[in-house]
Structures
1.
Amino acid sequence: MTDDLIADAPATPAPKAALHLRVSTGRQAESDLSIPDQRRQIGAYRAAKGWEVVSEFVEPGNTATDDRRPSSRR
């Protein structure tokens, strides 16, 4: 393959990903399970995979047993 053929090839779009960052308790939110730490870890993983983050859902310190728990979307 020549350089001209490579330069003319269409770019493949990056796979898209949505993040769901969550902790169940306030204690977890203050530990190494924190939302910022999850964001850092998944950021490194998705960068290595070449994924594009298109949406992020965050649930800080709410139990999964409460159907009325709030969630925020970024």
Note: Helices lie at 3-8, 26-29, 35-49.
2.
Amino acid sequence: MEQFFGGIDMPFSIYTYSNPYEINKELYWDFIKNCPHFCVSQTMANGMIETYEEMTAGKVSTVGNLVNSLFPYWESTECKIKQYTDIDKAIGRLEFPENGDKVRQSLRFNRKDLSNSLRILFELDMNIEEMRVDLMSEEQKHLIRLYRIIRETDMIHDFNLKRHFTRVEVDEAIKQGMILERDNVDFSTVDIDTIVIHGVHQFSPMILQTIELVAKYKRVVLLFNYQQQYKNVYQTWIDVYSSFDLPIISQFINEFKANPLLSNSYSGNLLADKLSNLIEGHPEENDIECPIEIMEFDNNTEFAGYVANIFEDALKRQEQDTENKRSTLYYMQEQFYAANNSVNDILKIYYPGQFGERHFLTYPIGHFFLSITNMWNAEEGGIRVENMNDIAECLNSGFIREKTPGSLYSIFNRTKEFFVRAKTIDQIMDLLGKLKKRIAKAEKDEAEKRIVSRLVYFDVTVEEIETLVIALMQLDQITKLFYEDFENTANNFKEFYKRIKEFLETRVLGAEDLEEEFRDVVKRVLVRLEEVDKIDASGSFDVLKETMAYYLKQESKKGLSANWIVRDFEQIDGDILKSRKQDKDTIYHFACLSDNDMNVSGRERFPWPLDVNFFEVAQEPIDWKYQVYVKSRREYKNFKRYALIYGLQFNRVKFKLSYVKNVDDKENEMYYLLKIRGAKKVYLDNKPVLSLSEVTKNALPQLDAANNYGQYDYFRYKICKYRFLLESTIEKKVVYRDHFLLLKYLEILLENAARITLQGQLATEDVLLDILNNEFKNLERKFEFIKDMHTERMDVVTNAKNYLLNSVLKQRITFPKVSPSDIIYMKKKEEFIYLQLGEKEENFFSNFREVLQADIVDRLSGDRVDAAGYPKSCGDWCQYCAVREICLEPYRYSGN
């Protein structure tokens, strides 16, 4: 054995293998097959288990499990929260010659990044005295000042990383790291005197600390794939591992070389060969015909829609497989790997359960705690509303009792535009009192009732308003119960979470209608909260807000880890091993292949304010761990290129390539290697993206048997059948909900009222403005939200003035009389905002010409409407549609 690992005195050995499917043919295999293999990722661990029979006995785990087992405290909630509060205190101790408050505020705003950066400095045990601070940026200088403050005060105890372990402790950590992966490990068959670290390219300081500590008592074998024929592609591995200053031992007896004449070569293998030869500087070598197609997605939403369709199909396959059910990803005909996997942020919304167990704070009751924290103003000692959605989340949480679930949320959403400018609970309740009086007044005046019937906040009853006021009073009281004395309490974190714990035990667990799954989550949150008794932490209210996600997180449960629908490139090396046994129609889809996504910058691999330049100038890179860490980060761009080549070369099924053209208002270019090889763009068919399920005919309301539809219903049907369904059939009226349409409606009411008052009067601008301002005063009580909005008020009056001058007065000296046809026209505008949109008059204005009632009855008969269905018509009318927030179709039409 020593001939392979360099003798007892040499704890590290670095080996490569040529073919990931044939590691068992390498000369060293017999000496490592019974050792613990700690792989870079879960996917590599899974791939090793499926590929090698020797690995099925629990010998494979992940590097992350080994790190967590060796340094459990450093990775614990208790440690991170203490460090967070220390950083806040250290920021308070900083002194600045000028603009101190602004700099301190900026640092506190970036506390999370600062915490991650400081942890890296402590993990690397960097020496301040050796740092060349004068070469650093201002932000980095502030970081080092914080580092010094922590090191020179008693805060250092919270940042001390254990660096001395006994052999017994290391043995137990190795075993624990294996048990974390599976319980039934037979240690009698495992040689723990040697461990294998497999496939790590991006070394974190903690992985390096772990390797160094384990190597004091064990042989450590570092293992990675290397292809001699593609030296430039694989040079990134050599560059990283050379920093260990050890020989890299390679043998090239099992190389796989793609050849179109061999039956075990696939189109992806041939493409990998052509791209690699291009990188090697031999573009014409083996230059057989190899056409490349790459899909172009316009934006991430379109890409997400494409993935969702594949995932939905997999869900159906999973449901049909009653005998051997596996994870949904197993049934996906396309497996996705992206150079930028941010598309998962969209997919999480549609498939939250796929991304691991939901955090407690993502449940409605968790939103309640987040929202009351967002609203609390520590300086004033009360609620300060900056975002009305925070109140909506509280009312929707179920925390405040209601007769019908969801009723408080519904009342609030219907009334919030009336008090949208309010900043306190008292102001909201005062405005709700005014609304209640105006609703009562409108009930007695038919003209008034007709106008306000289109305003969403008048679509409530007096009783509903009173119910909402009581709920808001309760919310105010509950919030004060949690926070009122927070700033004046010693160990305020402990006291705050003690109250949370009591509430969860009495108010939440005591509820009879609590779902069992969530009851289990709450119980595990309570277990986590037991740790609060160990944490004597006091901090500012801002720190409490930022650390809440650490405290209010349930203890993890095995089997509930995330299964990313779109994996990143670091998952390719393990997953690709499964392709040899998969159905040959399976497709490996390599996505986000743009120059921008493939060429990630050094800044993106470090938390702010760290960057590559910092590590180059901070101090001389004497320690090997320092060198390996920085080198691996600098090589990440080249790692992505390698991962693409590797995934294509060892793929044994079909493949696809794609990239996203528009991201964050920037246009991406196709990855340059594919462009050089003449990749042909193909486009997604124009299919709905993440569309809502089609409403079945059985779920639709039946058309009025008496067919009482009128002119407006007919016009609505002509514009959009889906709009007709919602407004004419379900709601039976138009209700303006959003801020933009409420203002447009006010503008039209103002035009109509002024037009009636002005008829026959001399056309002077002074007269016109006086009338408009007087009529505005009469209307503004119905639009309470506009009182303090001077700019919007001016816009409404100006728009009304311009309309009256240009479209009504024209060249006349006096304002014209209002005819019966004018009255009809004015009512139509109240109903539709605009009567003519677009350039083609026949497509729009003609919709509003009078139609005989007999024709309306015939066209809107139940049979004819049912046969046509209720398709959505996207176009200019969507901007002024009162139900656009329900429909969502205009957002796809606009490309957002």
Note: The first helix runs from residue 2 to 5.
